[in-house]
Amino acid sequence: MALFLARASKLLGLPLADQAKESFADLASASPESKLAVAQLNELGIARGYTAEEFGPANNIQRVHMAHFLARILRRTDVSLPNLATYTTRVSQLGDVSLLNRSARTDISLMLQLKIMDPVTPETFAPNADVTREDMALFLARTMQVVNVAPVSLELSLSSASLLVGGAATATVRALKPDGSPYPGLLIDLFADFGWRLDHLCNLDPEARVNGADAGTSEDCEIDIGDPRTNANGEVTVGLTHNIHNPEVVLNRIYAWTGRLGEQFHNTEVPIQVSKRFEWEPIPTQITTTEPINVAFGVGVSVVAQLVGPNSAGQRMVMMSRSGGVLRVIRVEYTNENGSVSFGLPGLAKPNRTSSRYDIVDEEIQIFWDRNSNSKHDGPAELSTSTTLYWG
């Protein structure tokens, strides 16, 4: 407890001495760091001993003790504390607090009003209950939030600020401790949102996908065990996709946040959050090309295709020709500013066989939008069309 309080006090800017006088005889077996922390807190009047020589390092800490310690820390900071005169009614409803001395009632009132500590039930505070390590971490984190010193900060980076619908981007969240070092093992919830609602809750885009954010076992906008945890570098990386084509731009905000387990997202009440705007751009809707063409053997021909719809300029297009089921030519070109593209196809040699002058050989032409730049047609996400050449 003393170590935790001393470290938190340092982050909050309290004047902790580098060296402090040891005054408690029962700290002989404590570590040097623990002895220093106890001495620092004693000098500041935050955590005093039971007597001038007894600190009680092995004793459990009760909730009322914790309220005293944290209230004393807050009074030594520059934060503006609320007027407790208006909060006496709330404390009087807690039967096990109303019987305590004035100092305890005041400090518990402060903890409740600042939402650092909560009642155990609507009628009880349980001042004599022990404080666990989990409780300690939560109370200190909330105290630092009150003084606007977050126990962790988040950074969010996107692989791109905009992307065509159906594409894939990544979002990387980096969690840092107050000293700038990575924060590993932290649960991070990520979601794609349309933007703020009047009630400041989530406004999820149902067609946006944040792949890997909730491991398929949990809910967006809630901190739960299905959320990804930061790695040794304090990072979480997820994929971003959007599946619905719209004629207009779709704007999302990608949110990343953390909090206590079970906490629900609320824009104005979640202090540790970060977000960035992401733009999903509309995509072309179809490819058109010429009707079947009759051409003479040995004569080169140009096959023209038109990529129709928004963002059709500068797109990578692939043409494949097959004759008799055998791939003959592959061409890669990019659409011009009007979405048009022309592929040159060398003439097909006349078959070496005896036939009439009316003998015709057909060649299948497939043209597709190669949005993945792998020269392979990857299914419906890559628009495709076909036509036929008749050589004769």
Helices and strands, in N-to-C order? HHHHHHHEEEEEEEEEEEEEEEE
Q: Number of folding domains?
A: 3
Indicate the multimeric state.
single chain
Strand order of the largest sheet: 10-16-15-12-13
Query: What is the number of helices?
Result: 7
Task: List low-confidence stretches.
Answer: none
- The backbone outline, from C-alpha atoms, is elongated
Cα(first) to Cα(last) distance is 91 Å
Structural class: alpha+beta
The count of strands amounts to 16
**Share in β-strands:** 25-35%
Helix content: 10-25%
| Largest sheet composition | 5 strands, mixed
Task: Indicate the mean pLDDT.
Answer: 88
Any idea what the radius of gyration is? Answer: 34 Å
Structure description:
This protein has 392 residues and is α+β, with helices and mostly antiparallel strands. Helices cover 18% and strands 27% of the residues. The chain folds into three domains: 2-146, no CATH class; 153-281, Immunoglobulin-like (Sandwich); 286-391, Immunoglobulins (Immunoglobulin-like, Sandwich). It contains seven helices and 16 strands. The strands form four sheets. It has a five-stranded mixed β-sheet with strand order 10-16-15-12-13, with no helix packed on it. The chain has a four-stranded antiparallel β-sheet with strand order 1-3-6-5, with no helix packed on it. It has a four-stranded mixed β-sheet with strand order 2-8-7-4, with no helix packed on it. Strand 12 (316-323) and strand 13 (326-334) form a beta hairpin.
